[in-house]
TrEMBL record, chain A:
This is Putative FAD-linked oxidoreductase. It comes from the Bacteria. GO terms for molecular function: FAD binding; oxidoreductase activity. Residues 48-226 form the FAD-binding PCMH-type domain. Pfam families: FAD-oxidase_C, FAD_binding_4. It is an enzyme of class 1 (oxidoreductase).
Automatic annotation (TrEMBL), chain B:
It holds the Pfam family FAD_binding_4. It comes from Tropicibacter naphthalenivorans. Keywords: FAD, Flavoprotein, Oxidoreductase. The lineage of its organism: Bacteria, Pseudomonadati, Pseudomonadota, Alphaproteobacteria, Rhodobacterales. Residues 1-164 form the FAD-binding PCMH-type domain. It is an enzyme of class 1 (oxidoreductase). This is Putative FAD-linked oxidoreductase.
Length: 482, 354
């Protein structure tokens, strides 16, 4: 992965930059010692590492604004960081950049049940937003698998999804307003606690902009009343095609489960060895969860069973209580751990139209043979968001590169069938150079035009999202304007 | 379309069905030639259509498969007295979202999966796609929903559609004051019974429940037990169409659409000589008045700015009044910057959004 050469002039004035940052932040909030900046050298995409020039941990919007203004004046790039759980390298630093971590900003600012919103500082973790309202039977819907650790700031940057977004939508559908600090230190309020934008939907474009338009320090999030209960059902099939057809029929029948999860044979076997959840040994497994009162759950499950039985399942297992429900989820929730246990893996997240599932799974199987690398599939089938896990050996020379080439081919396939490169992880550096497979130069120019407006100097989260070749002109123009 | 925009020598007024009373200055650019459903996959809940496709044609195609546009786009013809055929491009350009906004299915912008548009220089640009989860690059889809054609002429839109509910009933509460109505709607919306519509007009407060038959019966029973004197209306489709289309205000000279925090609805209209209808549990206020409304317009926009939200003049007796609420300076700078990028010559739909 090519990154721009560090700017020597910035490296040379490190001491001055650190001094200026220390002048506006409390003691201990500026990390500049080389041994300590190493803690920020990567996120969850650990194949790429680079310690930053420095890292800062501000506690207020004002401090964020001061940091950004100083960096803007000094021409220093800033890499915003939530909890560092990005799988796409969204928080990977460059050697001449300052990491701006929001971890110390984790307060709940306001909770309003009558009007169904919560306002938080964005360093707060996803799960602890729900934690703040759970005792009153409310929840925050988007639930990325990293929700124990990931910050709302990162969720907004990547427009994160989760298992339950089939019913509740992703971050952008549950975000009402933000306090955004622009690179020059300007603080703007976009949206509020009301349900739509006043002018053009700037909030809509900020969400999912991967920290390249500004730093979001506070967010107003929609909260919902918890359903009365939920239960999963497990259905096994002897082919991916049939399981895919079953998913499509369920959706078409008007049942809206909160989750439809799909696991293929390699994934079932690996998790069974690891977690011993008692899954049937079959080609494809569906775990479908529905919500409501007991009578409502029963009604929805009856419809799902009727459709599932039409496709001749090899197994159909219902959960009669919470214990059995937990057993059904056990394997699915252990899937990534199980894979990590047997091998290094790369997790992709391309999305495809649900109707293309059988074809895409078959093609991935064929490509797996061509590349000589195993693939396990575990994903959100209801919305077509795939998660192929390519297994490889990071210590064997050439395997990472082979794995990346295979991954790129899978993502190109997703685009070919009408899908996209990334459904919830974001582009980051990982998929940056594949962007031209999904978008024309004019499409990319239109996106970069938005960056020109919010961050004219192109200092925020550099070298992500857009292929370097495509953004060259914009970065050169920004430098020339200095 | 791209050639027409590229070759334009002056301002262009983009026109879909022309039913929403928002024709800008300049040469009229019709989207009607771009018509037709290009892809419809009921099993994937997605539909792609050219921007000039009549909404009625899309709704008929969906109806045949037992599906619908979950965001219930308003038909402006009744309240505005306009004629013509509403188009899907117009719906998207104005982010027209009906009563189901309170449910997780959300607004028009939440159901919009992808767009193709022609920018102010005549370049064709695509963003998003036809899948439900897509974070590939910046979300220009949201930016286009509700931009009223100022950031480009929409040529194709891709939408998430939804199954039509098997059953729908509405709980009706009679005679509540505006404040009590907001409180009742909040109770409904914060219950676990998945209310998909919460409105108040005339003397009636409505709470809608949709889904499978058994589930709807159960929830309607539970919800009624929460309120004194609740009545269950089996067929309230007509009432919800009135809410969606604001048809009760057809006889007024001026109609505003105010988006705010539900709990501030009362304060927003208190002491004013106006008629009021609430949707979105009070988060959407429709205000109607007769006669000279310039003073009232200023008052509503000031209150919206103070209480949080914005007031838009949807029906106006005076074309000189600015329809949209002025934005705070730093936001306005961003908006102007974006418009200058997408329409560098400054020719698209001038005057609509200021």
């Amino acid at each position: 992965m090519q990154m721009p050469e560090p700017n020597g002039a910035i490296l040379a004035k490190k001491a001055r930059i650190v001094d200026r940052l220390q002048a506006v932040l409390p003691a201990g909030a500026v990390i500049h010692d080389e041994a300590e900046t190493r803690a920020y050298e990567c996120d969850a995409l650990t194949a790429y590492r680079c310690p930053p020039l420095a890292a800062v941990l501000p506690s207020t919007t004002q401090e964020v604004s001061d940091v950004l203004r100083i960096c803007h004046e000094e021409g220093v790039s800033v890499v915003p960081r939530g909890s560092g759980t990005s799988l796409a390298g969204g928080a990977l630093p460059t050697a001449d950049s300052v990491i701006l971590g929001v971890a110390r900003m984790n307060a709940v600012l306001e909770t309003d049940y009558d009007n169904r919103y919560i306002r938080v500082q964005t360093g707060r973790t996803n799960l602890s937003v729900t934690g703040a309202v759970e005792a009153d039977d409310f929840f925050y819907a988007p639930d990325p698998s990293s929700q124990l650790a990931c910050a709302i700031a990162g969720n907004i940057a990547m427009n994160s999804g989760g298992a339950h977004c089939l019913k509740y939508g992703v971050t952008t559908n549950n975000l009402l307003g933000v306090t955004l600090v622009q690179m020059d230190g300007t603080v703007v309020e976009l949206g509020g606690a009301y349900m739509d934008a006043g002018g053009i939907d700037l909030l809509g474009v900020v969400c999912g902009s991967e920290g390249q338009l500004g730093v979001v320090t506070e967010a107003t999030l929609r909260i919902l009343r918890k359903p009365e209960g939920a239960l999963p059902v497990l259905i096994g099939y002897d082919s991916n095609e049939v399981a895919g057809a079953c998913v499509s029929d369920i959706i078409k029948a008007g049942v809206l489960p909160v989750a439809i999860e799909f696991m293929d044979a390699p994934c079932i076997r690996a998790t069974e060895d690891f977690a011993k959840a008692g899954y049937p040994d079959c080609e494809a497994l569906l775990i479908i969860e529905v919500e409501g009162a007991p009578c409502e759950i029963e009604e929805q499950l009856a419809k799902i069973k009727e459709i599932a039985l039409r496709h001749n399942p090899v197994e159909l297992r219902e959960a009669r209580d919470a214990d059995e429900a937990a057993r059904i989820w056990l394997g699915r929730k252990s899937a990534f751990g199980a894979m990590g246990n047997i091998n290094d893996y790369m997790c992709l997240d391309g999305t495809i139209p649900v109707t293309e599932l059988p074809y895409v799974l078959r093609r991935i199987g064929e490509m797996s043979k061509e590349y000589g690398l195993e693939v396990a599939n575990v994903f959100h089938a209801g919305d077509g968001n795939m998660h192929p896990l390519i297994l490889f050996n990071a210590n064997a020379p050439g395997q990472l590169e082979l794995c990346e080439a295979f991954g790129a081919d899978i993502l190109k396939l997703c685009v070919e069938v009408g899908g996209c490169l990334t459904g919830e992880h974001g582009v980051g550096i990982e998929k940056r150079d594949l962007m031209s497979h999904q978008y024309t130069p004019a499409d990319l120019e239109a996106q970069m035009a938005v960056k020109d407006v919010f961050d004219p100097k192109w200092l925020l989260n550099p070298a992500k999202v857009f292929p370097l070749g495509a953004s060259d002109g914009h970065r050169a123009a920004a430098l020339a304007a200095e | 379309m791209a050639e027409a925009v590229a070759g334009a020598t002056g301002p262009l007024a983009v026109r879909g069905g022309g039913t929403r009373g928002l024709l800008a200055e300049g040469a009229v650019l019709e989207t009607g030639g771009l018509s037709g459903i290009t892809l419809y996959e009921p099993g994937a809940l997605t539909l792609v259509a050219q921007a000039g496709t009549p909404v009625a044609q899309i709704e008929a195609a969906l109806e045949a498969e037992g599906q619908m546009l979950a965001f219930e786009p308003m038909d402006h013809r009744g309240v505005l007295g306009s004629v013509g055929e509403p188009t899907i491009g117009g719906v998207v350009a104005a982010n027209v979202s009906g009563p189901r906004r309170v449910a997780p299915s959300g607004a028009c912008r939440d159901c919009l999966l992808g767009v193709r548009f022609v920018d102010g220089l005549g370049q064709v640009i695509k963003n998003g796609g036809r899948v439900m989860k897509n974070v590939t690059g910046y979300d220009l889809v949201k930016l286009q929903a509700g931009a009223y054609g100022t950031l480009g002429v929409l040529t194709e839109v891709s939408l998430r559609v939804a199954p039509k509910p098997e059953a729908s009933v509405t709980l009706v509460l009679e005679g509540l004051s505006l404040g009590d109505a907001v409180a009742a709607m909040s109770r409904g919306l914060t219950s676990p019974y998945q209310v998909t519509g919460a409105a108040h007009f005339g003397e009636r407060t409505l709470l809608r429940i949709e889904g499978f038959e058994g589930s709807v019966r159960y929830r309607a029973g539970q919800l009624s037990a929460m309120f004194d004197g609740a009545r269950i209306e089996e067929d309230a489709a007509g009432l919800w169409a009135q809410v969606r289309d604001v048809s009760g205000f057809a006889g007024h000279d001026a109609v505003w659409r105010i988006s705010t925090v539900p709990g501030r609805a009362l304060e927003m209209v208190q002491g004013l000589d106006v008629d009021v209808m609430l949707d979105w549990g009070g988060g959407l206020i429709w205000v109607a008045a007769r006669g000279d409304v310039a003073g009232l317009h200023g008052t509503l926009q000031q209150r919206a700015a103070r209480l949080g939200g914005h007031a838009t003049l949807v029906k106006t007796p005076d074309p000189a009044l600015p329809r949209f609420q002025p934005e705070p300076a730093p936001v306005a700078r961003l908006t102007q910057g974006i418009r200058a990028k997408f329409d560098p010559r400054g020719i698209l739909n001038l005057g609509i959004m200021g």
